[in-house]
Amino acid sequence: MLRSRAAIIAAVTLACLIALLAIGAWGFGIEYSYTLQTVAIGGGLLGLISGVIGSFGVLRQQSLMGDAISHAALPGVAIAFLIAGRELGALMIGAGIASLLGVYWITAVTQTSRIKQDTAMGIVLVSWFAFGIALLSYIQGRPDASQAGLDRFIFGQAAAITAEDVRLITVIGTGLLLITALFWKEFKLIAFNYEFAAANGYPVRFLDALLSLMIVITIVLGLQLAGVILMVGLLIAPAVAARQWVTGLGAMVGLAGVFGLFAGMIGSGVSALDVGLPTGPMIILIASLIVAIALLFAPERGVIAQWRRTHQTVSKE
Amino acid sequence: MNALEVEDLTVAYHQKPVLWDIDLSVPEGVLAAIVGPNGAGKSTLIKAVLNLIPRASGEARFYGKAYTAARSLIGYVPQRGSVDWDFPTTVIDVVTMGLYGRLGWFKRPGQREREQALHALEQVGLTAFADRQINQLSGGQQQRTFLARALVQDAHLYFMDEPFAAVDALTERAIVNVLRELRGRGKTVIVVHHDLQTVPEYFDYVALLNVEMIAFGPTRDVFTESNLNRAYGGRVGFLAQSRTPHPYDRLAAD
Fold first, then answer.
1. What is the pLDDT of residues B165-189, one digit of tens each?
2. What gap in Å lies between CA B89 and CA A287, rounded to an integer?
3. To pair with B147 at 20 to 30 A between CA atoms, which of A49, A108, A316, B217?
4. Per-residue pLDDT tens for B25-65?
């Protein structure tokens, strides 16, 4: 009871905050331009999707995998540019292929050698990212492509989001959320107890691959906005914060979606106001603030609640 | 027909055998223990039999059938330490997971599944904990939750990995009662066990394992000091009849 009340309070507080910020922005005379609207909607949707999909990644204790996946996307973006030019669809396909190859590479290294998974992820993360940066430098040195604008894939750039992109995010995002709803109990089972699912005859490899693919798609969708370095934050932070407030999986995934929506919307909105703030860092700063609040103030799990509990126990004795 | 038939099973990890040429025939309707020192391959044996880890050679048959054909007859209780008990869910939700296989794809559990889960919780004495968060459970309660999840599966052959590890006396008694009740209904249970003291009391059959199968058979024939010494490399200095804990047992058990 106490916990569900806390969740409601958290959600209501957030809604009030959004309203306050909107009024505040209006008060300061910021115009709701079409661009700002597009950017805020795109960022919000992306945050929502990341919060939902990221929850499963966090619960499977595979947070670092998301980081490796997004870093691995960069050479894909660069190679796609060299082949197809400045075509967003091609860049995203390139990012997706490179990310999937990265995941495959990590799995292959873990299975065929004695190298543990975290180490394998570390190796793939840095090597693919380094390769991507080298390719970007090469592209920027070419006379015909000096204005490629590929830097935005490193830290993200909200202003680059177009109405076309928002439509794409909406369609693919709806698909991802639908798949999550359909495979809800299967995803829950493999996240909680993989071996039990396997022993029960579930196609765990398929489910595992499907979930990884969904994380890859989410990351690729968000690359333009949040950038390869910080995209993982949008997957992890909302889930971690949500876990602090609620106890059920459904509540956690839902609240993570709301937190992601909030961070994505405000972060990209602020950075699109053209004050030179990069989008990825803005979104992640807001998401981190939500995490910090959750870690400190959440009932039962929060640092303060825990301190008070120990304190009370001691004083009773 | 035997409930479980294992032939020539070998499992290797980085070219090093962790199980070597295992043969095992467990008859129907018995409680069987797998015991052996640390690193003997007890859990590995269960996992290899259940296709959870690859095997270098050998095969396992369940009631004469291959694993894929017999899957609905098999229940599995993993080590309780193998999952994150801070996962956001309740006791009854975990127990209901045992029914997912029968529900099929895309279907959500409903009232009927809840009642089945509650019945299983009653059998392990956790009725009052049904809606409790799993991160509030003690080790023994976690173990009983896993046991209830296996019970709702209504399998014929159960594999349990260390269900008695570090549990309270109440839980130990509850598990033993459930095991006996299962045997009474003709089920077969194969248990990875670490406490040599309780083997003669709890189990009809025992497998002494140390990478190779040292001995397997009815407990009264197989559970002898010479067999134990072979399995534990002479580190066991106690008689099976003795009920007083001896420092060497602890050494062997740990």
1. 988 999 999 999 999 999 999 999 9
2. 24
3. B217
4. 999 999 999 999 988 999 999 999 999 999 999 999 999 99
Reply yes or no on whether the pLDDT at B102 is more than 60: yes
CB atoms A59 and B133 under 8 Å:
no
How far apart are alpha carbons A263 and A274 in whole angstroms? 18
CB of B11 within 8 A of CB of B18? yes
The per-residue pLDDT for A143 is: 72
For residue B152, give the nearest of B100, B198, B201 by alpha carbon.
B100
Please list every residue in chain B whose beta carbon sits closer than 8 Å to the beta carbon of residue A188.
Answer: 89, 97
Helix, strand, coil percent values for chain A (each to nearest 5):
85, 0, 15
Query: Quick one: which of A170, A145, A290, A281 has its CA closest to A225?
Result: A281
Report the first-to-last Cα separation within chain B, whole angstroms.
35
Question: CA of A192, closest CA in chain B: separation in Å?
Answer: 6
Query: Could you confirm whether domain B2-253 is CATH 3.90.550.10?
Result: no
Please list every residue in chain B whose beta carbon sits closer than 8 Å to the beta carbon of residue A193.
78, 82-83, 97
Interface of A with B in 64-103 (CB under 8 A): none
Q: Which domains does chain A have, with CATH numbers?
A: 2-27+38-305 (1.10.3470.10)
Tokens 């990341």, residue? A50
**Alpha-carbon distances of B87 from A58, A66, A104, A269, A292, rounded to whole Å:** 10, 20, 27, 34, 21
Give strand ranges (E) for chain A.
none
Query: What SS3 string covers chain B?
Result: CEEEEEEEEEEEECCEEEEEEEEEEEECCCEEEEECCCCCCHHHHHHHHCCCCCCCEEEEEECCECHHHHHHHEEEECCHHHCCCCCCCEHHHHHHHHHHHHHCCCCCCCHHHHHHHHHHHHHCCCHHHCCCEHHHCCHHHHHHHHHHHHHHCCCCEEEEECCCCCCCHHHHHHHHHHHHHHHHCCCEEEEECCCHHHHHHHCCEEEEEECEEEEEEEHHHHCCHHHHHHHHCCCCCCCCCCCCCCHHHHHHHC
Q: What is the pLDDT of residues B123-148, one digit of tens each?
A: 999 999 999 999 999 999 999 999 99
Is this prediction's ipTM beyond 0.90?
Answer: no
Report residue B247's pLDDT band, with 50, 70 and 90 as the boundaries: very low
